[in-house]
Amino acid sequence: MQWTLEVVQVPVADVERAKGFYAEQVGFVVDFDTTVDEKTRFVQLTPPGSECSIQISSGMFDVPPGSLRGLQLVVPDVHAAHDRLVEGGVDNSGVVVFDGGSFRPVRDGDALDNVGFVHFSDPDGNQWSVQQISSRGPVTYDVVVTRVLDAPVEEAWTAWTEPELVRRWWGPTGFSSPRAELDVRVGGTSLVCMRAPAEHGGQDLYNTWTYRAVVPPERLEFELDFTDADRALLPAESIPPGVPRAVRHEVTLRPVADGRTELTVREFGYRTAEARDVSRAGLEQCLDKMVAMFGAG
């Protein structure tokens, strides 16, 4: 016999307030909102991708609001979950690691699978934990491209931190970059623009890079998102098929022989092989322009 857990009751004092928190701030999907009579109402919501839902209600159960502990969600990327909570205005613990019997703030280089968490509470005080288990995510496709630059690592680093240099390589072959406004620091957001050639419409395409890690001159981690010229997010339907809302990037630089630098760029989370291949082709052309830029002196 198969037994499945379908619904967990979450005790709240104000159903409307709790519904707004879970739906609008956390991002749960509202399944239904039913009023039985003037004293009885219940709302069911489901976390995206979950087979178990929560119900918030009034007049149904004699449980003190805010008394629930130990609720746990699992995500493939706890940093992305943290960013979603911050975007929704949800107070939270930040990303923490369970280490030696207690939680501590995450550090660069920490392995996060199974031990990476972010904690938050709803307005009534019901407590939630979000745990990273990357294998629970859907099948995705990543991009890895490596190039060797004819420059020492300190100089190669400036290709990612100096606006005039970014404009020289950002965009595939035939594209130009008229604008690069950089704020390279953890939590900072840069705006970059690539302009299509006339034969492809000549339109300006904007992205933001929001930084998770900045370790000069060795490593950058950032999320690329799709925006307009004012940094407003484009609607989901404007993002190419198979491309995630925010594309996580990891840039590493290491010195190699003859004063040169090995540059590796990784992009994560494409939902189709086709989307991955298109992105890889574009990235290869960008980095070929960077190689030529340093080769030209």
UniProtKB/TrEMBL annotation:
<dbReference type="Pfam" id="PF00903">
    <property type="entry name" value="Glyoxalase"/>
</dbReference>
<dbReference type="InterPro" id="IPR013538">
    <property type="entry name" value="ASHA1/2-like_C"/>
</dbReference>
<dbReference type="InterPro" id="IPR023393">
    <property type="entry name" value="START-like_dom_sf"/>
</dbReference>
<protein>
    <submittedName>
        <fullName>Uncharacterized protein YndB with AHSA1/START domain</fullName>
    </submittedName>
</protein>
<dbReference type="InterPro" id="IPR037523">
    <property type="entry name" value="VOC_core"/>
</dbReference>
<feature type="domain" description="VOC">
    <location>
        <begin position="4"/>
        <end position="133"/>
    </location>
</feature>
<dbReference type="InterPro" id="IPR029068">
    <property type="entry name" value="Glyas_Bleomycin-R_OHBP_Dase"/>
</dbReference>
<dbReference type="InterPro" id="IPR004360">
    <property type="entry name" value="Glyas_Fos-R_dOase_dom"/>
</dbReference>
<comment type="similarity">
    <text>Belongs to the AHA1 family.</text>
</comment>
<dbReference type="Pfam" id="PF08327">
    <property type="entry name" value="AHSA1"/>
</dbReference>
